[in-house]
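Two proteins, back to back. First:
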Amino acid sequence: MMDTASVDRIVSIVVLAVMALIVGLLAAAVIRGRLRSRALPGYSGIWLLAGMIVTLFAHIAGAVLATTDPSSPSAAAVPFTFALVQRLVSSAGLAMIAVGLLLAAMMRKQFDDEFLMTQRELAVARHFEFEAEERLRYLFDSTTNRVHCYRFDPPLAIDLPVEEQIARSYDAVLHDCNVNFAKELGEDSPDDVIGDRLGELDSSKDTAAHEAYFSAFIAGDYRLDDYDLIYETPDGEARALNVNMVGVVRNGLLHRMWSIEENTQRMRETREALNHRRRFQGLVASISSGLVMTTDAEAEEVIEASLQSVCDFVGADRSTLFSIDQASNAASIAHIWSPAGNPFGLVSMDLFPEFSKQLQSFQPVRIDDVSALPDTFKVDRTSLERFDLKSVLVLPLIVTGETIGGMTVGRLKEQKAWTDQEVGDLTVIAELFANYTFQLESRRALDEAMAQLKEATERLEAENVYLRQEIKLTHGFDEIVGESGAVLRCLQ
């Protein structure tokens, strides 16, 4: 059987092992950050660790001295009992542990108070977040603009080549949108379009427009501000959008793209129409002032310059002014502008039977594609093809209720669809040329008549002088003497 000393030593060793294990675990927890903030806040962990170390030290010393024989010289040399020292050290360690626990309790209470305060603040924040979300949803649904969000699944790596990012952009999926965007896609509710691919949009089907659009998005650090997206639908309809878009990028990955779009097609058309009217008004003013201020000697040059301006305005390759001789039913070119020269001579209107009827009835001849004319216009089509015309527009020159000729604008290289606006604009310009032609012809006729009158007057005066000289030579009155009025009149 073991004596009391042996039991004490075994107990001391077990206690020592337990204390060492506790201190080791506590130290490991502190080192690894397991006892931060919530578990042992503040300096409480340090106090607890220090107290346990001191207590452990007391137990180690107790275990060592417990193995020493009290009757040995070394034990006798100790002037005080070890039990007293052990109690003091253990008490100090316990006191430090108590301080650590007290600090932990105080700090825990402080953290609990802060936690409650944080919960209240979180509740308030959630309340405001809910209100903000409601306001955002209201704006989201009530705005006249189109709002949508596309997401990438999986997210798109932004370090990929631009071409690959553009290729993957077609696979982005609609995550959220408002009613206006859903209606643009032909549906009444966002639920009907959520999940659709970006590649299904009309704008994405215009490859060139989409590539330029997404390249600008990437170049702008995944952001677009007031970007004008101009594209053409598969049906050939022109569209214009003003886009503001921002990408959600985290850890080098593009997750979502939020976008606000405004349809600016009508505004763009209005702006283009205003610019067109401004250009047209400038063209009319230029032609009018040129025709009014030109002299007869400069008329040819001024008219050709005016025809060139007309071609530049409508994108034509050739323009002519021709007159029609009603007696011979033949047309002759009065003025022409064309880089290819003048291929016309005297042209019989019989080569254009149908078009001649339209001109005589004061109607414009409008041909977008000469080769597509029906067989009804077979003769006219053949004649136009002789002059290399792909598209042509002919406006009658009407003076005093009669078609005296016409103004033509034509395309020689490719077809052109003439718009109603262009027909109306060129009709106005044709009227300017018709009035100028009438005035020019009238002025030339008047000048010719005045010249003839002057010539007749000069001839009459010359004949009068000649007759006087004849009378004087053949019927002399030298022997007549008299100064009365009657005699003088007779002599005159």
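And the second protein:
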Amino acid sequence: RDYTEAGATEPAGPSSMRYDDGGYMRDYDFTAVLRGSEDGMLLLEQRNRIKLGDELEILLPDGANLRLMAGQIFDQEGKALTAARHPRQMIRIPGAIDKRYHLPLIIRRLCHNADKNDDTEEV
């Protein structure tokens, strides 16, 4: 949520309270941990629900994030899924990551209320 300077520059009063958006304001959700990459598939440890069509970003140490789409999702046995729903579920999605990046890496999903970030590359 947004913050005010109340209490830092003047005594807090009724005008310093914000009631219009009482929830969290965030642009991204932490979605998964990238654990591996093999044969054109990324191995993810799911932390928040991932569904078909989700736009994901792999956060890289150099700041050049990689964008990918969850166009297909598979469980460890190769069964196609419409969504990964179980915390810490190991899933695979099509993609690749340069071997110079040390794993694990964080994967996030753009929240629906956020604007797209233009400083990312497509995978």
